[in-house]
Write a structure and sequence with these properties.
The structure holds two protein chains of two kinds. Chain A is mainly alpha-helical. Chain A has two domains: 1-65 and 261-298, no CATH class; 67-249, MetI-like fold (Orthogonal Bundle), CATH 1.10.3720.10. In chain A, 73% of the residues lie in helices and 0% in strands. The longest helix of chain A has 34 residues, at 67-100. The radius of gyration of chain A is 24 Å and the shape is globular. Chain B has two domains: 2-47; 61-281, Orthogonal Bundle (MetI-like fold). Chain B is built from 13 helices and no strands. The chains are: A mainly alpha, B mainly alpha. Chains A and B meet through α1, α2, α4, α5 and α6 of A and α1, α4, α5, α6 and α7 of B.
């Protein structure tokens, strides 16, 4: 029996391994190597091959001196912090309400989930219209009776744009995160709450001492997903602001950096891409380790 | 006493319902916009963006369909999505199943590499990947499919791996004793048992591939094999030098969203349950 599976494993795992190596592992190794060379995309400057064009850490030094990269890094971090907080609060709040409401549960779940399926670029165009025309002219500015300057011209100001982008990103993904939280909530046994009620616990005490600790596994997943989603966001950034007015995020920076210099410096772009990977890997591993530890404590 | 508890409960239910209702309206609001503004001229969109159109004029939808090359773009996107998702699901399910059944060092190491690779963002490999694809003569639709398969694998294998553990090995043994071969065991015994996770992986992969902008942009660019999202991007950026051509953007976005809308309406129950199932194990 074991031999049977073993034999077939060796054969049937081949397609996955080939795909995986061609698409991810080989380009990943190439990428690390090329980031130390004078790579120009289709050729290496001053050499036939990559080992002749090695330039040491020059690309990395250039990256850390590049104002565009540094400002994209700062903006991405700011956006990620805001977006993760808003997405988590919104989806947990919505999940708790959907759990409690006695009618229309399925309807609400479905409606909230729907924006997930729509494209970030396509809906980003629609949202840019909403921010420019509806928010700025109809609802909160222009002729409107309620004037909220913060909600006007959000896409032309880096600080407001963080919230505009977070608003759209939350609109898109809250329904998905809600499903994960709802699952977590449904797994909490009712008798815990009943016992707490008998002991005279307040709603806040119940939330803090029962709901939150019991939700840690769901929280680990949602936190992981929202963190990497926000840090890597590209389509919404492109559609809403095109990265103008100091709102460029790292993904867009890596994409545009080969289009802004002539000749395009792919070596330097690749160095940014490697730094991007390291940041994501470190943040994700740290987050999962910390929240997992909390799970065990709880 | 009991009665006041009841009314209190009722009041809080009404509150809850109202708040959820407001959030639901907020969620639907952009889609409402998208819909009503797809039938208006540029002037009408800017003058009365919230209102219903004066007449349900199909001119703008027609011209948007022409500008994004609807027929070919839709066909390309469909082929890419269907082929890539089919390959991802089959390859990942088989791989994850055999990984679970094989407790060897090689199999465990492979699983670890697959899982760790989820941390590699697309942006970190895209330039060398495009380079490699060019060398292999795959800077085309076929190459695009290969790349989606490679990127879809990690997450999908991971999801299946968690689920395959719950498939009882005794069922497989029974089938094998009855003379079934490995493919029959897989398709008749294992695959039907993991259907919930198959639904999840189909949706998450299809959603992402259908809507993806970056990979087609790098591989296809502005030539005649564009996908829907890519056509939309070029239609917008080429006609948008003098402000945004809303009378083109709204109907074009609507056209891109309609196929998803139709599928969602038919499969909503499966989709919601599938995502929930994936979330527990993932």
């Amino acid at each position: 029996m074991e031999n049977f599976y073993k034999r077939w494993f060796k054969i049937l795992v081949i397609p996955a391994v080939i795909l995986f190596f061609v698409v991810i592992i080989i380009p990943f190794i190439m990428g690390i190597t090329y980031s130390f060379t004078a790579w120009r995309g289709s050729y290496f400057k001053g050499s036939e091959n990559w080992w002749g064009a090695l330039v040491g850490v020059t690309n990395y030094i250039k990256v850390f001196r590049s104002e565009k990269f540094l400002s994209a890094l700062v903006f991405t971090v700011k956006f990620t912090v805001v977006a993760v907080i808003i997405k988590n609060i919104a989806s947990l709040g919505m999940a708790m309400m959907v759990k409690k409401v006695s009618a229309g549960k399925g309807f609400f779940r479905t409606v909230f989930f729907f924006p997930n399926l729509l494209g970030g670029l396509a809906m980003g165009f629609v949202w840019s219209f909403i921010f420019q025309n509806i928010f700025s002219l109809v609802l909160f500015g222009g002729e409107s009776a309620i004037k909220i300057p913060f909600l006007c011209d959000m896409l032309q100001d880096p600080n407001k744009a963080i919230f505009a982008m977070a608003l759209m990103a939350t609109w898109q993904s809250a329904g998905y995160m809600l499903l994960i939280y709802l699952n977590g909530l449904n797994n909490i046994p009712d008798d815990l709450y009943e016992a707490a009620s008998i002991d005279g616990a307040t709603p806040w005490q119940k939330f803090k001492n029962i709901t939150l600790p019991m939700l840690m596994p769901a929280f680990t997943i949602v936190f992981f997903l929202t963190l990497s989603q926000s840090f890597k966001m590209l389509d919404e950034n492109l559609a809403l602001t095109s990265g103008n007015f100091g709102t460029r995020m790292l993904s867009l920076q890596i994409l545009l950096s080969t289009r802004e210099n002539i000749p395009a410096n792919y070596g330097m772009a690749q160095a940014q891409a490697i730094i991007f990977f390291i940041l994501i890997a470190v943040i994700s591993v740290a987050q999962v380790t910390v929240t997992k530890r909390k799970e065990i404590e709880a | 006493m009991k009665k006041s508890m009841g009314t209190k409960k009722k009041a809080s239910q009404i509150m809850l319902f109202a708040v959820l209702g407001i959030i639901a309206v907020y969620t639907v609001f952009p889609i409402y916009f998208l819909f009503v503004n797809s039938f208006k001229s540029q002037k009408e969109i800017v003058a009365s963006p919230m209102a219903f159109p004066k007449s349900w004029n199909l001119t703008y939808l027609k011209s948007a369909a022409e500008q994004i090359d609807l027929g070919p773009s839709l066909f390309n996107t469909l082929v890419i999505t269907v082929v890539a998702v089919t390959v991802i699901v089959l390859v990942s399910a088989v791989t994850a199943w055999l990984m679970v059944r094989n407790k060897t060092k090689a199999s465990q190491a492979l699983f670890l590499i697959f899982t760790a690779a989820m941390l590699i963002p697309f942006q970190s490999v895209m330039y060398p990947l495009v380079n490699l694809m060019e060398m292999l003569g795959l800077k085309n639709t076929g190459g695009l499919i290969v790349m989606y398969c490679g990127f879809g694998l990690s997450m999908t294998v991971f999801l299946y791996h968690g689920f395959m553990k719950s498939v009882p090995i005794s069922l497989e043994e029974a089938a094998l004793i009855d003379g079934a071969n490995i493919f029959q065991v897989f398709f008749k015994v294992v695959f039907p048992l993991v259907k919930p996770i198959t639904v999840t992986t189909i949706i998450t992969n299809a959603m992402w591939i259908w809507n993806d902008y970056l990979l087609p942009f790098l591989i296809i660019g502005n030539n005649d094999k564009k996908t829907l999202t890519l056509s939309l991007y070029y239609a917008k950026s080429l006609s948008g030098q003098y402000g945004n051509p809303w009378e083109l953007i709204f109907p074009a976005v609507l056209i891109c969203a309609v196929p998803i809308l139709v599928i969602f309406i038919f499969l909503q129950k499966n989709i919601i349950e599938g995502i929930a199932a994936g979330a527990v194990k993932g």
